[in-house]
Amino acid sequence: MADKINLEIVTPTKVVLNTEVDEVAAPGALGEFGVLPGHVPFITTLNPGLVKYSEGSSEKSFFIPGGIFNVEGDKAKILTESAELPSDIDSTEANQQLEDIQNLIEGFSGSKKELAELNKKLKLAEARVEAS
Hints:
The protein is α+β, with helices and mostly antiparallel strands.
């Protein structure tokens, strides 16, 4: 059994991260979950939030807007639209985006489909504020 996991975070335009880690935690659809070396293979969807990983005594993270998480052997791969360091998130801008979406929902009178899309944007905005 390996004592490290190769973690790869991939967006449509580049490989954001490719490194050996001790463990990974990610925001799954049913809550945060962790993966250690030797984990059974699986694939799942990810919600917006922080992907945290440890390298020795150092914990690092990336904010993702959701994605797919796949574990196979000693490799964990995350496919996502984007990934950013929490320190790169402008908290003032993130809070403003959240407030704007909340205001749109408050006075909303459109279709259920449009409301579902606004609620998806709301969850993303809330996660960005929390990460900032």
